[in-house]
Write a structure and sequence with these properties.
5 helices; single chain; alpha+beta; 143 residues; elongated; 5-stranded antiparallel beta sheet
């Protein structure tokens, strides 16, 4: 429905019309929205992870210094991902004397910590050396 730009409320009204009434439907419009939300939540991580990995592959094709490392669990789900591009690599080589390790605490839709590797240049500007989304904050994850 949403892939072809048909709103759920219009789909529901069409189904009611075909069934000849609300009482025959067997579910409410709220049930439909709940089911659509449940499907979106369960399939989102898989589709987002596939999209992220294909985006990383495209960046790697353009940038020879681009690095992306990721971990997949037994169910073929993306668990952890680290990346840095060529500019970040050069910035780290030039200004990597101070490295700030910043872990935001689960503020994204996947409830995963975003880890930023940040430094400063000679003008006290921030430079991002790399980034990672991690599943947990154990020692094994960081190594």
């Amino acid at each position: 429905m949403t892939r072809v730009s048909i709103r759920p409320c219009h789909t529901y009204e069409y189904m009611v019309e075909q069934a000849a009434g609300y009482s025959i439907m067997g579910f409410t419009i709220k049930d439909l929205y709940n089911k659509l939300d449940q499907q979106r939540r369960t399939s989102r991580f898989e589709s987002d992870s596939e999209g992220a990995l294909s985006y990383m592959r495209a960046l790697a094709a353009k940038d020879p210094h681009f690095i992306c490392r990721f971990t997949i669990d037994l169910e073929d789900r993306l668990v952890d991902i680290f990346w840095r591009d060529g500019n970040s690599f050069v910035d780290y080589q030039c200004c990597g004397n101070v490295l700030i390790f910043d872990s935001t605490y689960k503020t994204n839709v996947y409830n995963m910590p975003l880890v930023l590797f940040v430094g400063t240049n000679n003008y006290r500007g921030s430079l991002i050396f790399g980034a990672a989304l991690i599943s947990d904050e154990t020692a094994e994850t960081y190594t």
